[in-house]
Give the backbone structure.
Amino acid sequence: MSSISSLRPRDDKATYMKINPKAKLSRKLFSKTIETAATRDGYGQGLVSLGEKNEKVVVLCADLTESTRCRHFAAKFPERFVEVGVAEQNLAGLASGLAMAGYIPFISSFAVFSPGRNWEQIRVSICYSNFNVKIVGSHAGISTGPDGATHQALEDIALMRVLPNMTVVAPADAIEARKATEEAAEKKGPVYLRLTRSESPVFTTAKTPFQIGRAEVLTFGNDVTIISCGPFVYLALRAAAALAKTYKIKAEVINCHTIKPLDIKTIVQSAGKTGAVVTVEEHQIGCGLGSAVAECLVENQPVPMRLVGMPDSFGESGEPDELLEKYGLTVERIVGAVLEIIDK
Amino acid sequence: MQEQITNIKKLNKIANNIRQNIITMLLKAGSGHSAGSLGLADVFTALYFNVLKHDPKRPNWQERDRVILSNGHICPVWYATLAQAGYFPKRELWTLRQLGSPLQGHPRYHSAPGIENTSGPLGQGISVAAGLAYAIHELQKSHENVFCVTSDGEHDEGQTWEAVMFAAKHKLPNLTVIIDRNNIQISGQTEQVMPLDSLKDKYQAFNWHVIEIDGHNMEEIIAALNKAKSIVERPVCVIANTIPGKGVDFMEYNYEWHGKAPNTEEAERALRQLSNLSSRTSV
């Protein structure tokens, strides 16, 4: 299993960094011994737990049972697991029919295929009727690695957040992915869960607050707000540590796991306080988290912004670290973006 | 429960009435799809007045048979049939395609009682119907039937065949697909746009049971749909050979009427022809 070492801590503990005690982050936040796991693994665990407590949950997969971690659910609840073959359009349509009958289908594939290939089926057969279907796209981002650009979903947030009725969630680590999976089942209507392949630090804990639609302030700061989602939240935390250590800049890091509906209040409040916002995501800069935040701030609290993400480009084959480095998805880039927009 | 009508003349009269309502709906709407709507009036009449177990007064009755319409553009026939059966007042029909109407240009799930699914973009209905049939049969261990009405043209869509494979894999006993084999689609004859023949051989190769019928012969339609309910070894495909624009001579067989509504003069001619037919087949 490849892991993203640039998302690994390097003992850059920062005395100036003020962590929100209510966030209950891992005590090993910046320790080299912090655990790592992929968000898809949290999903796999969440499904099993859901299977036990909610008999309406059914899981459908398009021939990627192992890769999407549906196999645990499939082994334990074979009567509620449906293998549909390599047929993502049918995957979405079947889910619509199951939802009509009162079930809560989770449909799993790689994000490039679902919601990539079956976007229109999701729009018409799921979203328009506000059906209770959970679309789970794994292998999002270039950290998907050696499989190359064809398999690295960098447009999925855009595709999903533009749809009426849709909720979009990108969990920050495996623990949060598990919580998001379980909460998605409780939430009425369609939800998109964005998952990743590579292992990344598990920096939240069972006690870290999580609620779909509510962004969490992880560190307090007055100089700049750094907003991120998915495992890149950890990159944002490391950037905040570097900013504190090297520049004595206090950054407020927000885990904005829910891209839609956006937690406008938390974001506007923080931007109003810091006067500068940097967004960080493993997605095309266009139409992703950064755009969502920009849409929110331009109406409510215009401040200087920088958007860090994929620069309107496809990825390529390579190890996750090599790719993140090549495409500028690094702590250094985030620090640079912050320095560009704050008055220090 | 909807009373089952077995008198063929009565059923034909209902179908004719539905056709007349379709013409008036399309005239008032000023746009919409005439040919397919008229072509399927007999099939919809057979379903809602003879074959289905349903209750217009309880549209969400758990034990009802379901109709999923895949080729949503022919919804005027669905709406007219539902109104005829008493799901909603007939006056609603005259609001088709107008702002604020529950009767959207293409069907929207539950926008009016009896509308069981959203459709329009082609090729999705069999997937939805298969998911519903799977939920009923495999998960709820129940027996309600799901009838999915599709067009021949939408068999161009790859998703159709994904769903056909899925239904065969699970041998869904409660799923029947009805294909409106009228040989036209929006740009011309199906066999010129994208050859489909033989649909029968294709479905058989996919391990479905296939019944081919005259889609305007009420007795044949009813016999085929009842047979479909009784076949539990595999899903059933009923290929209903129909005449697009059936009942209106200048619309029949003419693909140009696929996506067109009649103007006042055309509607008057159409209604005259249909009411003449009706008086000839009166009970």
Chain B has one domain: 8-280. Chain B touches chain A through 33 residues (CB under 8 Å). The first strand of chain B starts at residue 66 and ends at 69.
